[in-house]
Amino acid sequence: MRFPGAMTAESTNNKVVVTPSSSALLASSAVLPDEILKAVFLLLPVKSVLRFRAVCRSWAALLSSDEFSNLHMAAQTKDSPTPPKLLFVSPTANFAATAVYSCSLSSSSSSPTANFDAADQLLFTLPYARGNSMNVAAAPCHGLTLLHDATRRAHYVCNPATRAVTRLPRRDALYSAAGLGFDAASRKHKAVLLSQHTWHESLFITCEVYTLGGDDDGDQHQPWRPVAGVVPAAFRNLAHAAIFTA
Amino acid sequence: MAAPESGDGNNGAARMVTLISSDNTRFEVEAAAASLSQTLQLTILDGGGGGGDGIPLPNVDSATLSKVLEYCIKHAPAAANGGAPNATAVDRAELERFDNEFVNIDQSVLYSLIMAAHNLEIEGLQSLVAKKVADMIKGKSPMEIRRTLGFPDPTPEEQAEMNAHMLEYGWAYE
Description:
Strand content of chain B: 5-15%
Strand order of the largest sheet of chain A: 4-5-6-7
Radius of gyration of chain B: 21 Å
Helix content of chain A: 25-40%
Number of strands of chain B: 3
Domain SKP1 component POZ (chain B): 16-75
Protein name (chain A): F-box domain-containing protein
Domain F-box (chain A): 26-71
Strand content of chain A: 25-35%
InterPro entries (chain A): F-box-assoc_dom_typ3, F-box-like_dom_sf, F-box_dom, SCF_F-box_component
Radius of gyration of chain A: 25 Å
Largest sheet of chain A: 4 strands, antiparallel
Oligomer: heterodimer
InterPro entries (chain B): SKP1, SKP1-like, SKP1-like_dim_sf, SKP1/BTB/POZ_sf, Skp1_comp_dimer, Skp1_comp_POZ
Order of helices and strands of chain A: HHHHHEEHEEEEEEEEEH
Number of strands of chain A: 11
CATH class of chain B: Alpha Beta
Number of helices of chain B: 8
Largest sheet of chain B: 3 strands, mixed
Strand order of the largest sheet of chain B: 2-1-3
Shape of chain A: globular
Mean pLDDT of chain B: 85
């Protein structure tokens, strides 16, 4: 719906053709061109974006696409830099489960207690996670956070914005440390696990990688993948330190 | 602002251009204000729109164009300052107040404004109306959106998908 004919002053005498599509658009005041709709979507809060995925399949496809997610994340952080939020875990009343909360640190709200509306901040509960042994991993990575249940030796990865949470396949090791990384090339998160094992009275350390959202070949449920067998001797002290200071 | 057939562009120091709406109303406006439109900018830079010529805007009617120009005139001084880095807080607050008031309009007018901002590529106005639409729809349920947009009622299959989504993302519906 551009009108290039109007770009130059000489075109004043040109006959202007109003295309049927443009008059149809003007007639029905409900249909916005995709381009504008996309601009509007970028301004919506995450909650609305999630909800609008249910409007119809074409909205679902658009609002679930990686392209949109990336643009949305960029737009949200650029226009209104989100104040940092605190993510914290707390055991439920009987210690059988863990509740994960987010809490705003901004003081913009009129009364300080308004920030402690518990119902608003409860992101999700993890029913099988022992409440008194959960840790939030030190640094969130590209939107995702790693949680670790030391008692059950289970790792969870969660997205506080969408409240999606997934448990990583279990690895049995007495001592281990895990971290999250983001592969910018494949645009996938990867969890890295260093664990110390004992084999015939000798200690060795393994390093394994788990790709979230499946491998490039689309296998959703692939297991942890060993990186290079045993961690080379030169790095053993470093890996050992990483495990025991985690 | 709406001055049919007035002057030849020599009105004081500021250069004037003439814009012609789809219903043939002529609007004379400062070139600086009209240049907020990316679509018109080059034409104006090349000296178009002056004198008796006028730039025809076949997709914008006079009611909408007058509204668009109201925005441009208000925002032109700040835009000339390069986004007004040295604008006072009072100026910024005044522009913000103007913007809020400006989009507090009937939905059909808003719709024409969206299309005009899009066609004329007026960046500030595009974001302003997009923000307004986002604010209008962000609290609606998927069903309300469908009705607003005039979609047909969901098929049983679609309805089942909508219900499943609501179960999965209950918190997003609160």
